[in-house]
């Protein structure tokens, strides 16, 4: 078993009196896709935002590449190599692909942008991910399809020598062909050695691309299992009840007080 590139233990997060995450353990391994699943309100988005530095944590330990780290904000996460592609993609429709990929991180001097360098880097990044659906990196984002937009957002996340990429519902609202393109891209990220976290409600997508499945149930990590070791039905049971047979959270009568 490979050592996790990102290893979270005992993470707790509350918002006022509401305890959202309870002693959550979560690991991400380089070269693998870990699917993070759970019902609405299970805590998936909160966990991702804690990893990304958007939310502070109440307690818990985070280790990155074997070293304990403290993520106090999004810049700390980005400096480590943790990137998040949110469901709304955060792309500017009025800018082209190159401008979006380098937005806020432009190359050049204070007086002159290095357009040629940025354009070349954008092309190379898309090519390294075997992206063939984008004809020109100077195409405005407003002219792209949903699948192409998702591709640009993912390519943007790996442009900065990232080590871990978290994808929030990357195939939501996409057609069959576009979903196929995005799932292929997710696998290519793992094949390039990145640790990939896929947040999804689509079990077909999860079972197709994920090496492991981590299930959150009411803010607790119910199970983290190899995809090949569980069935679709077992994962659904873990999502809805926190337990499936011998897998999952302890039953109340067996719980340690």
Structure characterization notes:
The structure is a single chain. With 257 residues, the chain is α/β, with parallel strands linked by helices. The protein has one domain (6-254): Rossmann fold, CATH 3.40.50.300. It is 31% helix and 26% strand. It is built from eight helices and twelve strands. The chain has a six-stranded mixed β-sheet with strand order 6-7-8-3-9-10, with helices on both faces. Strands 2-1-4-5 form a four-stranded antiparallel β-sheet, covered by helices on one side. The radius of gyration is 19 Å and the shape is globular. The mean pLDDT is 90.
User: Average pLDDT across residues?
Assistant: 90
- At the fold tier of CATH, the topology name is Rossmann fold
Number of DSSP strand runs? 12
Which oligomeric form is depicted? single chain
Structural class: alpha/beta
H/E element order: EEEHEEHEHHHEHEHEEHEE
Shape: globular
Strand content: 25-35%
Which residues form runs of ≥5 with pLDDT under 50?
A: none
What is the rounded distance between the termini?
32 Å
Relevant CATH superfamily? P-loop containing nucleotide triphosphate hydrolases
In short:
With 257 residues, the chain is of the alpha/beta class. The chain is built from eight helices and twelve strands. The relative contact order is 0.17.
Write the layout of secondary structure elements.
Elements: E1 6-15, E2 18-28, E3 33-37, H1 44-51, E4 59-64, E5 67-69, H2 74-80, E6 82-85, H3 97-101, H4 115-128, H5 146-158, E7 164-168, H6 176-191, E8 195-199, H7 203-209, E9 212-217, E10 220-226, H8 232-241, E11 243-244, E12 247-248
Parallel strand pairs: 3-8, 3-9, 6-7, 7-8
Antiparallel strand pairs: 1-2, 1-4, 4-5, 9-10, 11-12
Helix pairs in contact: 5-6
């Amino acid at each position: 078993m490979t050592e996790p590139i990102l290893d979270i233990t005992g993470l707790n997060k509350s918002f006022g009196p509401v305890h959202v995450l309870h002693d959550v353990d979560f690991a991400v391994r380089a070269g693998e896709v870990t699917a993070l699943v759970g019902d609405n309100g299970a805590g998936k988005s909160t966990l991702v935002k804690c990893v990304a530095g958007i939310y502070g944590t109440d307690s818990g330990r985070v280790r990155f590449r074997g070293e304990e780290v403290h993520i106090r904000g999004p810049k700390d996460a980005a400096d480590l190599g943790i990137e998040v592609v949110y469901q709304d993609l955060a792309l500017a429709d009025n800018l082209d692909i190159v401008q979006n990929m380098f937005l806020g991180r432009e190359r050049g001097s204070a007086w002159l942008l290095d357009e040629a360098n940025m354009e070349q880097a954008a092309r190379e990044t898309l090519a390294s991910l075997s992206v063939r659906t984008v004809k020109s990196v100077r195409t405005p984002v407003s002219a792209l399809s949903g699948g192409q937009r998702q591709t640009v957002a993912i390519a943007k996340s790996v442009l900065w020598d990232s080590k871990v990429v978290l994808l929030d519902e990357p195939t939501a609202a996409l057609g069959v062909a576009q979903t196929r393109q995005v799932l292929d891209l997710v696998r290519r990220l793992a094949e390039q050695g990145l640790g990939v976290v896929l947040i999804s409600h689509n079990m077909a997508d999860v079972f197709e691309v994920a090496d492991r499945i981590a299930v959150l149930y009411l803010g607790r990590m119910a199970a983290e299992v190899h995809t090949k070791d569980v069935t679709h039905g077992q994962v659904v049971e873990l999502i809805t009840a926190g337990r499936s047979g011998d897998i999952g959270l302890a039953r109340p009568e067996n719980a340690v007080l």
